[in-house]
Design a protein that fits this description.
Elements (H helix, E strand, L loop, with lengths): L8 E4 L9 H14 L6 H8 L4 H12 L7 H16 L6 H7 L4 E5 L3 H10 L10 E3 L11 H10 L6 E5 L2 H9 L3 E5 L9 H8 L3 E3 L2 H9 L10
Parallel strand pairs: 1-2, 1-4, 2-3, 4-5, 5-6
Length: 231
């Protein structure tokens, strides 16, 4: 993205955009939900819950199931996910190179909890690219797909929403960015993205979809340009 483009900030989602964590988390969510008697497949979790906070996911499941999840469910899941991070987690291919090239200010705005965010970014070596500008949905009243988190991040960074670009892999995240009045780039380089995921992101309001970090680099650092969201 050249300097003539009217953007002052890039807001990155984390899971599935910076780190290839959605495959790990979705697998573990599906296994633990099935274990407690709520049969769920990996693809079910990807389609229904990607981009949502654990609290929102829990609320939706309990409404559908008609009973509360066990009190220790979130702890068990998060402990398993963090352990998988330590043995399996990788950065999205090409993201580190993109962040080294990116000249615009950047931050992270994610549905994940702060400790999980820091762990994932530190293990993949990406934390220094963002520290201390890492924002979690626990910092706002309502998470994605509401616009609150993106608006909070923009305010903390001192940038007007219309001058922000959001990079998102989830439908909830795309909708949140659009609702915040920001331009949204859909991103499908994560291992969890299904074959038709680009169409889902377009339908949710993404301005353009990048299929790889290289395509995203072209949009943010190269010759391609994006027009701001209007209205």
């Amino acid at each position: 993205m050249k300097q003539q483009n009217p953007y002052d900030l890039v807001i990155f989602d984390c899971d599935g955009v910076l780190i290839d964590s959605e495959t790990l988390a979705s697998r573990i969510d599906a296994e633990e939900l099935t274990r407690i008697g709520y049969p769920t497949s990996y693809s079910d979790v990807v389609l229904r819950f990607t981009g949502l906070s654990s609290a929102t996911m829990r609320k939706l499941i309990e409404e559908d199931w008609g009973r509360p999840l066990p009190g220790n469910f979130d702890t068990i899941v998060q402990d398993r996910i963090k352990e998988s991070y330590r043995t399996e987690l990788q950065a999205i291919s090409g993201i580190d190179q993109l962040l080294h090239q990116l000249q615009l200010p950047r931050c992270v705005a994610s549905s994940s909890a702060p400790d999980k965010l820091r762990l994932g970014l530190e293990l993949t070596g990406l934390w220094p690219h963002f520290d201390p500008h890492v924002f979690s949905s626990v910092m706002v009243k309502v998470g994605k797909p509401a616009p609150d988190l993106f608006l909070f991040a923009a305010a903390k960074m001192g940038v007007e929403p219309a001058r922000c670009v959001v990079v998102e892999d989830s439908i909830a995240g795309v909708r949140a960015g659009v609702a915040a009045g920001m331009t949204v780039i859909g991103f499908t380089a994560g291992g969890h993205c299904l074959e038709d995921h680009n169409h889902r992101l377009f339908s949710a309001g993404a301005k353009v979809v990048a299929r790889s970090a290289e395509e995203l680099t072209s949009l943010l650092c190269g010759s391609q340009t994006l027009s701001p969201m209007m209205g």
